[in-house]
């Protein structure tokens, strides 16, 4: 309300969805959710690719899971630091500590999927297959959420993240296998 009793009308910026009852800006919330989905996708692909690379040369479950865990921790820390710096240097954005924590958690959620898939399977070939299937299913789920939040076609989004994830795992597996076959 203005001092003269007239109602103050706040006009939303272009491409913003605002609930008139509560003045809640859903566009900003959707951007955070989309960032969380992308962070989880990054954790999923990074950790799975690292585990597939180690699995290309080591059949030991311990080596594979430890490599995945190290990748999860390193990636979550890297994401958190990057998000903190990015948000801290800009005006009118949320708390940089919250942004850093959200980024680390999102990366970790994705990264834990291939680790859980591999954790209880002793047979190397079966473990590699189960990780690939679990990661593929998670990529499809993240693709669906990303498409909905980004308002893009679901099929195209799912195929994009699925093929990208497969390529990352295959390239990491292939180069690590090649390097492992060369005596260093």
TrEMBL record:
<dbReference type="Pfam" id="PF01988">
    <property type="entry name" value="VIT1"/>
</dbReference>
<dbReference type="GO" id="GO:0030026">
    <property type="term" value="P:intracellular manganese ion homeostasis"/>
</dbReference>
<dbReference type="GO" id="GO:0140315">
    <property type="term" value="F:iron ion sequestering activity"/>
</dbReference>
<feature type="transmembrane region" description="Helical">
    <location>
        <begin position="128"/>
        <end position="149"/>
    </location>
</feature>
<keyword id="KW-0812">Transmembrane</keyword>
<dbReference type="InterPro" id="IPR008217">
    <property type="entry name" value="Ccc1_fam"/>
</dbReference>
<feature type="transmembrane region" description="Helical">
    <location>
        <begin position="101"/>
        <end position="121"/>
    </location>
</feature>
<keyword id="KW-0406">Ion transport</keyword>
<feature type="transmembrane region" description="Helical">
    <location>
        <begin position="61"/>
        <end position="81"/>
    </location>
</feature>
<protein>
    <recommendedName>
        <fullName>Vacuolar iron transporter</fullName>
    </recommendedName>
</protein>
<keyword id="KW-0472">Membrane</keyword>
<comment type="similarity">
    <text>Belongs to the CCC1 family.</text>
</comment>
<keyword id="KW-1133">Transmembrane helix</keyword>
<keyword id="KW-0926">Vacuole</keyword>
<comment type="function">
    <text>Vacuolar Fe(2+) uptake transporter.</text>
</comment>
<keyword id="KW-0408">Iron</keyword>
<dbReference type="GO" id="GO:0005384">
    <property type="term" value="F:manganese ion transmembrane transporter activity"/>
</dbReference>
<feature type="transmembrane region" description="Helical">
    <location>
        <begin position="32"/>
        <end position="54"/>
    </location>
</feature>
<keyword id="KW-0813">Transport</keyword>
<keyword id="KW-0410">Iron transport</keyword>
<dbReference type="GO" id="GO:0005774">
    <property type="term" value="C:vacuolar membrane"/>
</dbReference>
<feature type="transmembrane region" description="Helical">
    <location>
        <begin position="161"/>
        <end position="180"/>
    </location>
</feature>
<dbReference type="GO" id="GO:0005381">
    <property type="term" value="F:iron ion transmembrane transporter activity"/>
</dbReference>
């Amino acid at each position: 309300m203005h001092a003269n009793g007239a109602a103050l009308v706040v006009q939303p910026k272009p491409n913003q969805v605002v609930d008139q009852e509560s003045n809640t800006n859903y566009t900003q919330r959707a951007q955070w959710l989309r960032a969380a989905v992308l962070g989880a996708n990054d954790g999923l692909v990074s950790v799975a690719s690292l585990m597939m690379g180690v699995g290309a040369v080591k059949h030991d479950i311990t080596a594979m899971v430890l490599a995945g865990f190290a990748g999860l921790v390193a990636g979550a820390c890297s994401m958190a630091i990057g998000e903190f710096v990015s948000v801290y240097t800009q005006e009118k954005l949320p708390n940089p500590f919250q942004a850093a924590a959200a980024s680390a958690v999102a990366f970790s959620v994705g990264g834990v999927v291939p680790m859980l898939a591999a954790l209880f399977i002793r047979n190397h070939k079966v473990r590699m297959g189960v990780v690939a299937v679990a990661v593929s299913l998670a990529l499809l789920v993240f693709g669906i959420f990303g498409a909905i939040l980004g308002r893009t076609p679901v099929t195209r989004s799912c195929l994009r993240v699925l093929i990208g994830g497969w390529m990352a795992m295959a390239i990491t597996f292939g180069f690590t296998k090649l390097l492992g076959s060369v005596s260093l």
